[in-house]
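User: Quick sanity check before I run a bigger batch. Here is a single chain. Can you write out its predicted 3D structure?
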Amino acid sequence: MSNVPLTELAKLFLRLGITAFGGPAAHIAMMRDEVVERRHWLTDKEFLDLLAATNLIPGPNSTEMAIHLGYKHGGKAGLIVAGTCFIFPASLIVAAIAWAYVRYGDTPQIDWLIYGIGPVVIAIIVQALVKLGRTAISQVSHALLGTAVLVLALNGTNELLLLMIGALTGLAMATRRWTGMAAILTLLTSVGYSVHLSAQAVTADAVPFTLTRLTLFFAKVGSVLFGSGYVLLAFLRADLTERWEWLTDQQLIDAVTIGQITPGPVFTTATFIGYLLGGWSGAILATIAIFLPGFIFVAISQPLIPKLRNSRPLGGILDGIVIASFGLMSAVTWQLAQTSLVDIQTMVIGLVTIAILMIWRPNSSWLILAGAALGWLLRSA
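Assistant: Done. Predicted structure follows.
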């Protein structure tokens, strides 16, 4: 572990918490630019190992990546500093919007922000994918696995199941033992489907709101949730809207939208909902509850990564998860591109951003701010 001053970790992740728009894939791309390209704190291979480790545990991937990086370069104090600094600015912004929402009854109209920043975010992710791909995809079998995960993800296959496929395939490639892998995968799929059916069978039963229930609910979500913001939406709707009737569908959609269009972790949706239901106390408790499990999981899992690498079977599993993670990130990029590159202007912004990244390699935060300014100019013209 290379030690980095806590003040430097704080400055880096505070800035990322303010400027990291675009969701987990974009956040991870920006982190890679900072710690691999600009600061040389670790190699692409080490970065990919940490990325795979975030996919092994539940919780918000990009936040856990920040926590991993803080732990690796600043120990347990760095873990707390990096994670808190990445989460705090975003939570404060979302809480301020929630206050305005409660006071004025609507979300702010900031289409121009999404319009200008979206193409820049896509370009940043594409650049990171190209460079990470050179490290992750070193064999034809790796390319085939990554392509299979990409296709399956685009067709709606569950993210956790795809990571299981990656892990089992990586184990089979490392040990040359293919017998029984299909049976294990079938069993896992059946169990996952049964759990899904059980969750659907839960009957509606409205319960009164309390801060304790709110805190325990978000602690549960942070402890068990794998996947994207859309998976988070499913969790929230099942309990808060359908079972307990604490929120309307429109309030829930507004909460998830705010979490996605503001910088930093998408899980700050919890901050918005917490304020809506319980004021400032609810916002603080919901935020702590949903993010705290990630700190614990990272502290437990990071020391195990070298042991995974030193074991051939476990190293194969880690390689498989790395490739599956790369495939998932590629699928998310394609889906985001379809919503961000909506006309000639946004396509030009994206292409120019890629060219700038390839030629001058500026700090991605400046590109995000330039995208926001362009969006405002183009939409107000």
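The radius of gyration is 21 Å.

User: Great, the batch can go ahead then.
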